[in-house]
Amino acid sequence: MEEVVLRLKELLLLSIADITVLSVDVDIEMLRVDGQCVADGAVCPVCGGWSNRVHGSCLRLPACVPSGGRSVGLRLRVRRFACGNSGCPRRTFVEQVPGLT
């Protein structure tokens, strides 16, 4: 079973850069994947400025989808960054993962 879980970690989210799979839990009804963003920083969606100053983090729970008779859920930890541009009206923003958030 452990070998299957390790293989799932390799395959899941393989095409999405800057995501690390932390754990995969499988039971008879559900497969749950816990992941987190690991990019060096993010771009402010308002001013376009780069920031790597982490203000906090939160969990995103994209919709569960069925696969092979099981529900598949993703719990993704994303970070909130502080915008370094003092002229920007957006003080903080959450990193976005194209295709997921």
Can you tell me about this structure?
With 101 residues, the protein is mostly beta strands. The chain has 1 helix and 8 strands. The strands form 2 sheets. Strands 1, 2, 5, 6, 7 and 8 form a 6-stranded mixed beta sheet that branches. The mean pLDDT is 83.
Brief rundown of the structure:
The protein contains 1 helix and 8 strands. The chain is mainly beta and 101 residues long. A hairpin with a 2-residue loop joins β6 (65-67) and β7 (70-82).
Count of individual helical segments: 1
Average the pLDDT over all residues and give the rounded result. Answer: 83
- Tell me about the largest β-sheet: 6 strands, mixed
Radius of gyration: 16 Å
The tally of beta strands, per DSSP, is 8
Helix content: under 10%
Q: Uncertain regions: pLDDT < 50 for 5+ in a row?
A: none
